[in-house]
Amino acid sequence: MAVLAAGCIKPKKTTSSGEGQAPAPKVKDVILVTTTSAVDSGLLDVLIPVFEKKTGYNVKTVAVGTGQALAIGEKGEADVLLVHTPKDEQKLVDSGVGINYQLVMHNDFLLVGPKNDPAQVKGLKNCALALQKVAQKKCIFVSRGDGSGTHKKEKSVWKKAGVTPGGKWYQESGTGMGQTLQIASEKQGYTLTDRATFLAQKQNLKLVPLVEGDAVLLNVYHVMQVNPKKFSKVNAEGAKAFVKFMVAPETQRMIGEFGKEKFGQSLFIPDAGKKMSDLAV
Amino acid sequence: MGIIGQGLIEALRLIFTFDSEVLNITLRTLQVSGTATLISVFIGVPVGTLLALKTFIGRQAVVSLVNFGMGLPPVVVGLITWLLLTRYGPLGFLGLLYNPLAMVIAQAIIASPIVMGFTIAAIQSLNPKIRLQIMALGASRFQFLFLILKEARLGLLAAVIAGFGGVISEVGASMMVGGNVRGETRVLTTAIVLEVSKGNFEIATALSIILLLISFIIVAVLTNLQQKGKLLA
């Protein structure tokens, strides 16, 4: 009965691009695959309920490492992606899997380490140089080692530093950011972290920020839908609505406000409508 | 006070204020693991009984396989179930991925061999004379099975306890096929992992205490049932 009744109440117009008050969506579930860092910060817990209320969709947020997120997207197993490894994302866009690719926001990475700073990197403006010093002194460095966006960022900075990290001092945790920070804190080592996770956990850590503000440390989030022309099972309408929501002025305002109350600073800087090249500080 | 102490206080607060999210997660945990255990009993007990009573070629190999299955790594079960249930996987048309039912399936796969193995052990450890005695009394096939299972009830309840214990404590498979979606597939174990990765150790400890508490209560009820049965016999 319920099914029959639901069938009778058809949305007024399904072809319009969804202006005005939300028509009941045809397929309710939208699978959003995103990275653990986006979920761990708590930002999505604020944004998703607003989106669901506005549009009537039901978002299934699945948090995985960036590597897994992109792989899932590539197989058409997600409807929409929110990820932060522009270089790898570009491959998805180029192959036609990712469409409606939009810049959403950024935050930044920090090199954090023990207060006594044995590698003496505090205040350096060049993160690659700082890593060179860490490697020279063989100070403990804890890497995510999980193929996540943060891990990829770390590897790119090592590359820039011209160092192939390895040996006893370079330890791969294979866990999320939160746990990696804990490990670095326990071992009094250095690690690269996103600002949001670090601020959220600061009170539990014996680590301080040492290097920040280097352009190479920007952490840029994009949203994209998975191309329904390639994968017919994708919830295209829902994904489109989500992308539209993420770059809408009201959402962008919420992103900018997020975390101000708790940490005294914004965790994310809204960037909708900008280009990657605008971001280089 | 350490994290454990704070966790204990937080746990009490969450329990006694009936925190709606924690309540929701706890109920879903019971629902998913309870259903999975029930399914595993419906599969494990009949198959286990058959394997314990029938003799056929290759029986020993099958029993070895069941015993091997008792230790299936949940994360492997999760991965395989995930691959089967993905949109473009063989069972993708069912649309079950990231739904509680997907977790039920994965957990039932984990619990079934456990229940099966315990059932085989329970029936085979009965005194063989009992079988002869039941048959000598002229029991029908159905009566025979009923009486055998009744005799083995101590071991069968142990099977249920072990199966339930295996799935309620499991996290790898639930995380993979459920996706830990808030309000839908988040159960106690996956919520604990999330809170740890967020650095909220007090809440993680509190959820752990709640998980231990409910699994203790359920096992205690089952044990009570088991031991009462023993006294009556």
Structure characterization notes:
The complex is a heterodimer of chains A (281) and B (233). Chain A is of the alpha/beta class. Chain A folds into 2 domains: 27-106 and 220-274, D-Maltodextrin-Binding Protein, domain 2; 108-217, D-Maltodextrin-Binding Protein, domain 2 (3-Layer(aba) Sandwich). Chain A is 40% helix and 21% strand. Chain A has 13 helices and 10 strands. In chain A, the strands form 2 sheets. In chain A, strands 1, 2, 3, 4, 7, 8, 9 and 10 form an 8-stranded mixed sheet that branches. In chain A, α6 packs across α7 (149-161). The radius of gyration of chain A is 20 Å and the shape is globular. By secondary structure, chain B is mainly alpha-helical. Chain B has one domain: MetI-like (MetI-like fold). Chain B has helices at 3-16, 20-53, 59-69, 74-85, 100-124, 128-136, 141-151, 153-168, 172-178, 188-198, 201-232. The termini of chain B are far apart.
Give a concise summary:
With 281 residues, chain A is α/β, with parallel strands linked by helices. Chain A has helices spanning 2-8, 36-40, 43-55, 66-74, 86-94, 127-136, 149-161, 177-187, 195-201, 236-247, 249-257, 260-263, 276-279; strands spanning 29-35, 58-64, 80-83, 98-113, 141-143, 170-172, 191-194, 208-211, 218-226, 269-270. In chain A, strands 1, 2, 3, 4, 7, 8, 9 and 10 form an eight-stranded mixed sheet that branches. In chain A, strands 5-6 form a two-stranded parallel ribbon.
Give the secondary structure arrangement, pairings included.
The complex is a heterodimer of chains A (281) and B (233).
Chain A: H1 2-8, E1 29-35, H2 36-40, H3 43-55, E2 58-64, H4 66-74, E3 80-83, H5 86-94, E4 98-113, H6 127-136, E5 141-143, H7 149-161, E6 170-172, H8 177-187, E7 191-194, H9 195-201, E8 208-211, E9 218-226, H10 236-247, H11 249-257, H12 260-263, E10 269-270, H13 276-279
Helix pairs in contact in A: 6-7
Chain B: H1 3-16, H2 20-53, H3 59-69, H4 74-85, H5 100-124, H6 128-136, H7 141-151, H8 153-168, H9 172-178, H10 188-198, H11 201-232
Helix pairs in contact in B: 1-11, 2-5, 2-8, 3-5, 4-5, 4-9, 5-8, 5-9, 8-11, 10-11
